[in-house]
């Protein structure tokens, strides 16, 4: 894997965030949401784990406990990071880093960055995914390591991840100041914004180790599959069987993560990688929020083995797989359209498109193609609809006794509606009149005919 190619100027940031976020919210709202997320997300992870594992999944039970015992009660339930937890995290992180560096993969060029660089990646995600899953199941099968240890130390692991990832984000902040990897970096002069949104778009260690590929894909997304399997195995070891609800949940999550790694080089063209810098928002999110919150419907099912019956289980499974497929097909369609420079078929026909020009931060004029047919002609962010529905379908096996398993669906809906607005605003400032034309041709932002 080669390093990014460099251009001359360093990207400037605005007072309200990275380039990508500068026009979206007022400065006051931006500061308020940043400080809120920085302070509230860590305790929320612990409260969610505590409620799922020790309070029967009941928010009311946790609320009553906190009302009775106050802050001291909360401190008592916050698990301290233990040596076992640190060991599990260190082994997993080292294993994933080694796979990222050592497994072969084809050379892939990322999209041109705002500063005019083109990052180069090694596409070995599928191999890393297959090796990880086989190794994890193999360790269990041959009695070398029992995944129930992970479940039994889950609170300590999340606690260690919260602190460890915070320190990692401080490292990213210092690196961004002292030794940025490319010209896609820079400070807005405000410590909190720099820490929260990040300093660098493509930070690397040495020439080959891409930090965002590690945090987002190989640690975050991979942990989703590993932890989903852990929940399934824990239920099996505790009850001697796996409920159909847990099976549907685990299969859908594994299909989703498999799809992610199948399409990983497409992910390197999305906002997370191509626009959002490496800071607390994206890196802490992938290192802590993904393994804890994204996997939480499965965490609930461990102690609530709902029996769905074969027919209902199959309906949910098929509906979930269909949504994951549609989400994949939306991403594939856009990627294929851009890769072939519009010379492909979209739903069996030549695509309709807008040729949009824009100026990079170094002053160069470039062109991009905007697809206006297929999924991308239904609404400007139609792919978020099947994304949210997939999450609903792997949660609904929990049925409706408690609200908490649905927290991820709710969170994802808010995240993606906000993201659609953020992306629209960024594209409007990037493409100007061309984006206006796209909005006239495709008037709805997410849900055709409604929003
Ligand atoms: P996209 O992959 O949709 O990327 C948006 C970018 O695509 C825009 O910034 C623009 O970039 C380009 N673009 C926009 N419209 C068009 C068009 N009509 N034709 C061609 N290119 C266009 O964004 P996301 O990163 O949000 O989504 C990627 C995937 O990740 C989706 O499947 C989404 O559901 C999923 N996702 C999942 C999340 C989760 O937490 N589970 C969170 C976020 C996303 P450019 O500057 O190149 O023109």
Automatic annotation (TrEMBL):
<protein>
    <recommendedName>
        <fullName>7-dehydrocholesterol reductase</fullName>
        <ecNumber>1.3.1.21</ecNumber>
    </recommendedName>
</protein>
<dbReference type="GO" id="GO:0006695">
    <property type="term" value="P:cholesterol biosynthetic process"/>
</dbReference>
<feature type="transmembrane region" description="Helical">
    <location>
        <begin position="312"/>
        <end position="328"/>
    </location>
</feature>
<keyword id="KW-1207">Sterol metabolism</keyword>
<feature type="transmembrane region" description="Helical">
    <location>
        <begin position="391"/>
        <end position="417"/>
    </location>
</feature>
<keyword id="KW-0521">NADP</keyword>
<dbReference type="InterPro" id="IPR001171">
    <property type="entry name" value="ERG24_DHCR-like"/>
</dbReference>
<dbReference type="Pfam" id="PF01222">
    <property type="entry name" value="ERG4_ERG24"/>
</dbReference>
<keyword id="KW-0152">Cholesterol biosynthesis</keyword>
<keyword id="KW-1133">Transmembrane helix</keyword>
<keyword id="KW-0753">Steroid metabolism</keyword>
<keyword id="KW-0752">Steroid biosynthesis</keyword>
<dbReference type="GO" id="GO:0047598">
    <property type="term" value="F:7-dehydrocholesterol reductase activity"/>
</dbReference>
<keyword id="KW-0756">Sterol biosynthesis</keyword>
<dbReference type="GO" id="GO:0005789">
    <property type="term" value="C:endoplasmic reticulum membrane"/>
</dbReference>
<dbReference type="InterPro" id="IPR018083">
    <property type="entry name" value="Sterol_reductase_CS"/>
</dbReference>
<feature type="transmembrane region" description="Helical">
    <location>
        <begin position="126"/>
        <end position="145"/>
    </location>
</feature>
<keyword id="KW-0443">Lipid metabolism</keyword>
<feature type="transmembrane region" description="Helical">
    <location>
        <begin position="246"/>
        <end position="263"/>
    </location>
</feature>
<keyword id="KW-0560">Oxidoreductase</keyword>
<feature type="transmembrane region" description="Helical">
    <location>
        <begin position="157"/>
        <end position="174"/>
    </location>
</feature>
<comment type="similarity">
    <text>Belongs to the ERG4/ERG24 family.</text>
</comment>
<dbReference type="GO" id="GO:0016132">
    <property type="term" value="P:brassinosteroid biosynthetic process"/>
</dbReference>
<keyword id="KW-0444">Lipid biosynthesis</keyword>
<keyword id="KW-0153">Cholesterol metabolism</keyword>
<feature type="transmembrane region" description="Helical">
    <location>
        <begin position="278"/>
        <end position="300"/>
    </location>
</feature>
<keyword id="KW-0812">Transmembrane</keyword>
<feature type="transmembrane region" description="Helical">
    <location>
        <begin position="84"/>
        <end position="105"/>
    </location>
</feature>
<feature type="transmembrane region" description="Helical">
    <location>
        <begin position="28"/>
        <end position="50"/>
    </location>
</feature>
<keyword id="KW-0256">Endoplasmic reticulum</keyword>
<keyword id="KW-0472">Membrane</keyword>
């Amino acid at each position: 894997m080669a390093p990014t190619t460099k251009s001359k100027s360093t990207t400037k940031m605005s007072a309200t965030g990275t380039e990508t976020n500068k026009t979206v919210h007022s400065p006051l709202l931006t500061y308020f949401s940043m400080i809120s997320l920085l302070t509230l997300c860590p305790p929320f992870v612990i409260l969610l784990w505590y409620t799922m594992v020790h309070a029967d999944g009941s928010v009311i039970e946790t609320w009553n406990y906190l009302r009775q015992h106050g802050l001291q009660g909360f401190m008592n339930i916050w698990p301290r990071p233990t040596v076992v937890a640190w060991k599990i995290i260190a082994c997993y992180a080292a294993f994933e880093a080694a796979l990222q560096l050592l497994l072969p993969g084809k050379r892939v060029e990322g999209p041109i960055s705002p500063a005019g660089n083109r990052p180069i990646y090694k596409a070995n995600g599928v191999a890393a995914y297959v090796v990880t899953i086989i190794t994890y199941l193999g360790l269990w099968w041959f009695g070398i390591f029992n995944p129930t240890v992970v479940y039994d130390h889950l609170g300590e692991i999340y606690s260690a991840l919260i602190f460890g990832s915070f320190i990692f984000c401080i490292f990213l902040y210092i690196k961004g100041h002292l030794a940025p990897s490319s010209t896609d970096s820079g400070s807005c002069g405000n410590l909190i914004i720099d820490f929260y949104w990040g300093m660098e778009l493509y930070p690397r260690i040495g020439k080959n180790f891409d930090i965002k590929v590690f945090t987002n894909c190989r640690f975050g997304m991979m942990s989703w599959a590993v932890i989903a399997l852990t929940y399934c195995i824990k239920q099996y070891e505790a009850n001697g069987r796996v409920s159909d609800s847990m099976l549907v949940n685990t299969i859908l999550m594994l299909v989703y993560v498999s799809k992610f790694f199948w399409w990983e080089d497409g992910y390197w063209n999305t906002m997370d990688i191509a626009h959002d810098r490496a800071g607390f928002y994206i890196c802490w999110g992938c290192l802590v929020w993904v393994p804890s919150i994204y996997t939480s419907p499965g965490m609930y099912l461990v102690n609530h083995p709902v029996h769905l019956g074969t027919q209902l289980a199959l309906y949910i499974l098929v509906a979930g797989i269909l949504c994951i497929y549609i989400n994949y097909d939306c991403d594939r369609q856009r990627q294929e359209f851009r890769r072939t420079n519009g010379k492909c078929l979209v739903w069996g026909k030549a695509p309709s498109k807008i040729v949009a020009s824009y100026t990079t931060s170094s002053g160069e004029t470039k062109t991009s193609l905007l697809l206006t047919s297929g999924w991308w002609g239904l609404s400007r962010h139609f792919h978020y609809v099947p994304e949210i529905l997939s999450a609903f379908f792997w949660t609904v096996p929990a049925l409706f006794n408690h609200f908490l398993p649905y927290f991820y669906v709710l969170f994802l809906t808010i995240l993606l509606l906000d993201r659609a607005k953020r992306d629209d605003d960024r594209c409007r400032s990037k493409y100007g009149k061309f984006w206006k034309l796209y909005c006239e041709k495709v008037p709805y932002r997410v849900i055709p005919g409604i929003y």
